[in-house]
Automatic annotation (TrEMBL):
SMART domains: THN (SM00205). This is Thaumatin-like protein 1. Residues 1-19 form the signal peptide. Disulfide bonds join C28-C238, C76-C86, C91-C98, C149-C228, C154-C211, C162-C174, C178-C187, C188-C198. Residues 263-273 have a biased composition (Low complexity). SUPFAM superfamilies: Osmotin, thaumatin-like protein (SSF49870). Residues 251-262 have a biased composition (Polar residues). It comes from Heracleum sosnowskyi. Keywords: Disulfide bond, Signal. Residues 251-295 are annotated as: Disordered.
Length: 316
């Protein structure tokens, strides 16, 4: 009897440390290999990368206070006879497990900072296109008790609308303007490293119009960071369209409660040098400058899109 009580007490103790369950769902027409990078100072999850076949799911438990990011790798080849790699969002480990390495841009990122478990301690989460885009992804919260607890992400296939100068050669991912051109105004670096001096570019506006709830540039906090308390989260790749939540994710978040949202933002983690402004920044991403010559090769559709984006920035 005493042994049973001890076991039950240990079970309660262990259970109380769990902050959230993350469930990964693959609705793509191909296999996805999720990658996981844990923020410094928090314990790693049970895996840092795994294979997720089409129409399958897998759940992982995270402790209170955990922070990190998730992404989906595509076109991976791991045959067991040597180092493998992925065509998009590769972490460079040569293995299915990323082993502490982050995603090589372009990559659609889901970023989380879980609450500490104390009463009223909120989770912060977002989907970021600051490091570019490789596949659709949405995040949904369930069972949360307070906060916005809203769905966020990007259900639009941005690869179809990516400007020519941001396209990766095989068309399976779309670079950020920062990676393509390496200029401070696109990277929110140097003299542009504050919310006041870093403004959305026409390229960021393209991403924002397509995916209103996802981060489009480093300081895109007000409409891109979401909070919830005591929730579990589902990360879905390639959400089927139409779905019941597509309209919600594609809708521009309301800013009528700006004071409440700003208050939440004041307690969120501070912006990093890469990835979204409010999400965890476990590891800085290496950026390379793209050829400026590519900007001379706009197609007509890209010029039209940039004109609309510029008008969007001017009026709003």
């Amino acid at each position: 009897m005493a042994l049973f009580k001890l076991f039950f007490a240990l079970l309660l103790l262990c259970t109380s440390t769990y902050g959230a369950k993350f469930t990964f769902v693959n609705k793509c027409e191909y296999t996805v290999w999720p990658g996981i990078l844990t923020g410094s100072g928090t314990p790693p999850l049970e895996t840092t990368g795994f294979e997720l076949p089409q129409q399958s799911s897998r759940s992982l438990q995270a402790p209170n206070g955990w922070s990190g990011r998730f992404w989906g790798r595509t076109g991976c080849k791991f045959n067991g006879t040597g180092p493998g790699s992925c065509s998009t969002a590769d972490c460079g480990s040569g293995q299915v497990e990323c082993n502490g390495a982050g995603a090589a841009p372009p990559a659609t990122l889901a970023e989380f900072t879980l609450g500490s478990g104390s009463q009223g301690s909120q989770d912060f989460y977002d989907v970021s296109l600051v490091d570019g885009y490789n596949l659709p992804m949405i995040v949904e919260a369930s069972g949360g008790s307070s906060g916005m607890c809203a769905a966020t992400g990007c259900v639009t296939d941005l690869n179809k609308y990516c400007p020519d100068e941001l396209k990766v050669s095989n068309g399976d991912s779309c670079k950020s303007a920062c990676e393509a051109f390496g200029k401070p105004e696109y990277c929110c670096s140097g003299a542009h490293n504050t919310p006041e001096t870093c403004k959305p570019s026409a390229y960021a506006a393209i991403f924002k119009m397509a995916c209103p709830r996802a981060y489009s540039y480093a300081y895109d906090d007000l409409t891109s960071t979401f909070t919830c308390t005591g929730a579990d989260y589902t990360i879905t790749f390639c959400t089927s369209i139409p779905t019941s939540h597509t309209a919600v994710v594609n809708a521009t978040p309301s800013t009528t409660n700006g004071n409440e949202q700003q208050a939440a933002m004041s307690s969120a983690p501070s912006p990093g040098t890469s990835g979204s402004g409010s999400g965890p920044e476990p590891e800085p991403m290496m950026r390379t400058s793209g050829s400026s010559d590519s900007r001379r090769n706009h197609s007509l559709s890209t010029l039209q899109f940039l004109f609309i984006a510029s008008a969007f920035i001017f009026f709003f």
